[in-house]
Amino acid sequence: xxxxxxxxxxxxxxxxxxxxxxxxxxxxxxxxxxxxxxxxxxxxxxxxxxxxxxxxxxxxxxxxxxxxxxxxxxxxxxxxxxxxxxxxxxxxxxxxxxxxxxxxxxxxxxxxxxxxxxxxxxxxxxxxxxxxxxxxxxxxxxxxxxxxxxxxxxxxxxxxxxxxxxxxxxxxxxxxxxxxxxxxxxxxxxxxxxxxxxxxxxxxxxxxxxxxxxxxxxxxxxxxxxxxxxxxxxxxxxxxxxxxxxxxxxxxxxxxxxxxxxxxxxxxxxxxxxxxxxxxxxxxxxxxxxxxxxxxxxxxxxxxxxxxxxxxxxxxxxxxxxxxxxxxxxxxxxxxxxxxxxxxxxxxxxxxxxxxxxxxxxxxxxxxxxxxxxxxxxxxxxxxxxxxxxxxxxxxxxxxxxxxxxxxxxxxxxxxxxxxxxxxxxxxxxxxxxxxxxxxxxxxxxxxxxxxxxxxxxxxxxxxxxxxxxxxxxxxxxxxxxxxxxxxxxxxxxxxxxxxxxxxxxxxxxxxxxxxxxxxxxxxxxxxxxxxx
Length: 533
Hints:
With about 525 residues, the chain is an all-alpha fold. The protein has helices spanning about 5-15, 15-35, 35-40, 45-55, 60-65, 75-100, 100-105, 110-115, 120-150, 155-180, 185-205, 220-230, 240-260, 285-310, 325-335, 340-375, 375-380, 385-420, 425-435, 440-455, 460-480, 485, 505-525. Helix 6 (about 75-100) runs parallel beside helix 10 (about 155-180), helix 16 (about 340-375) runs antiparallel to helix 18 (about 385-420) and helix 16 (about 340-375) runs antiparallel to helix 21 (about 460-480). The relative contact order is 0.09. The mean pLDDT is about 85. This is ABC-2 type transport system permease protein.
């Protein structure tokens, strides 16, 4: 383990800002939700009927997880945002671990480190320790934040520990995925697919009847273990041994797998291509599709499965909030004040899906920057390919793929309700609602292109916009944030069909701004020095 301390300090220093932004964003959500408890349940005496109503409602269980205690702010916070924050913490853990392992190896930094007096497994172990330290800090912040909000100290410790250990599981997933392939992008895709499957499994297990054998699958999903430990509800500490044990197993497997592979490779090596390029690769657009098709297929499958699953919940939606008027108010606000709760539910779900596809658009656009930093763009642009054509090949994927996906997602989400009601018109209504939000997606992509064209080092700003929009969508209504703060997103001014009437002015203005950002971004990409990026 020569050099372990040095590499841990180096990894922490290189990633301190990256991790600090993640930790701050995750931490703020938790105590802020606890402070909103009295707005939702002003009289704790009402908590009993509310718990019974929520426990028996498959829709709410699938969306937010099982409610074990709503008689105080702590239990309410665990139910309302606990699973969501734990899942996002898993994303943080995966991205940080792959960034410190396979991405460094792919960039040649690990080879440089190993040229010194450093043990074979030291870079991997150091990366895992840095990521686990970030998880531990998150746990401490959650514990301190909840205790500071006046919740029970024991429950706060269980909540923070559960959050940290859930994220730690995905440190292990990221470390193991990083050993499987020679590509950091593929490793991220594998690990995030595991996280997505775990979340869908949790939603499926929570959404079925209590006596169904499928309910037992909740014990298979790591993102459920924190809630099953029951913070603030007679804590079951032994449940937290599950994520701790799984983390240890995954890290041990990663170390063992690293010992069996060559540097820069993995058990799943990239397949050799055909001796000659096909006609598809004769254009920049074909090359961009070839590079990104795996990412597109993965996101497409995950999003469409989610849309079908979440849409199927609407068939039991009519009786959801009979005993919970305050929660009905929150959903109505998330759904643009809908009179029909089903319509409000569609609007709320579309507001989340549209952010997912916006994030996909930024990821697809980010490949353009990766090609530049890897030196591949320089090779392509040394031929007769124009810069705007090369950038446009990735930009069109960032615009077209999210457009198609949000429309398809809206249609699939509405199909179960259309079948139940015998009214196919609901499909058209929901697809129209999805289409009305598209200019916001294009604006996010345009902002990404503008930054990539002129200031590629500030590309994270576009992700910050998506992150803030997600916070506003998920808990903005719950926290009763000021309207001016809720409107600081690219989607706030767009009409939310079918709850609201169609308003063409904000749609056209947002689309025009998006087009202007795209044009300015392409101009910048054509003019700036790639080597200086």
